[in-house]
Amino acid sequence: SRIGYKFAGWWTATGGGTQIQDVTTVTTAVNHTLYARWADLIIGDIGPGGGKVFYDKGFYSDGWRYLEAATVDLNPLQWKTTNSSTPGTSTAIGTGYTNTYTYMAGTIYPAAQACRDYRGGGQADWFLPSKDELYELYKQKTVVGGFDESTSYWSSSEFDDYNAWRQIFLDGRQLGYYKYWNFKIRPIRAF
Asked: Are the C-beta atoms of residues 190 and 164 closer than 8 Å to each other?
């Protein structure tokens, strides 16, 4: 396997050639060299963690190109167990991992802790999406599937000292809400 790509078949040449399929008949009794061909992933493909790819930034940088989402929700949890500031969190795409593993360390952040503990596909780098990552996930909700539109989902981005950003999956709105409230969680990972 090749991370970030899907297998596109065996071919008789590196560029062009003939695709070898399970019904291909070989008529010469000599060794044949076959070349694996790979294709970029697209939105909706299965990622290496078993989740659905919902975002492609178009190129690899900072160690990743794609975001995949777990195919199941985690139980509703609080964003934080205390009403206090969490300095440093960001809302941008590409910041959910840092929010979860740097600024939201410890058990006083139950939603982030649940994502850190999640082991979908045997991967140990799942995180709570940032506000903007969660909005991208909302835009692909029918591709990823399984969302509960009757409630909200937490992001890893702080709104202010007492509130964090949440995503409403019914209509796409993003609003701040009390950190001690229980909302659903959908872990994501970058690769």
From this structure: no
Query: What is the Cα gyration radius of the chain?
Result: 20
The Cα–Cα gap between 98 and 129 comes to 10
Tokens of 150: 């009757």
pLDDT of residue 121: 96
Q: What is the pLDDT of residues 49-65, one digit of tens each?
A: 999 999 999 999 999 99
24, pLDDT greater than 80: no
Following DSSP, what letter does each residue of 28-73 receive, concatenated?
A: S-S----EEEEEE--TTSB-TTSSEEEEEEEEEETTEEEEEE-SSP
State the average pLDDT for the chain: 94
Alpha-carbon span 58 to 40, nearest angstrom:
10
Q: What six digits make up the tokens of 15?
A: 């560029």
Closest Cα to residue 161, out of 91, 97, 80?
A: 80
Higher confidence at residue 97 or residue 17? 97
Contact assessment for residue 185 and residue 118, using Cβ atoms and an 8 Å cutoff: no
> How many CA atoms, within 13 angstroms, populate the side-chain half-sphere of residue 11?
13
Say how far apart CA 66 and CA 63 lie, in whole Å: 10
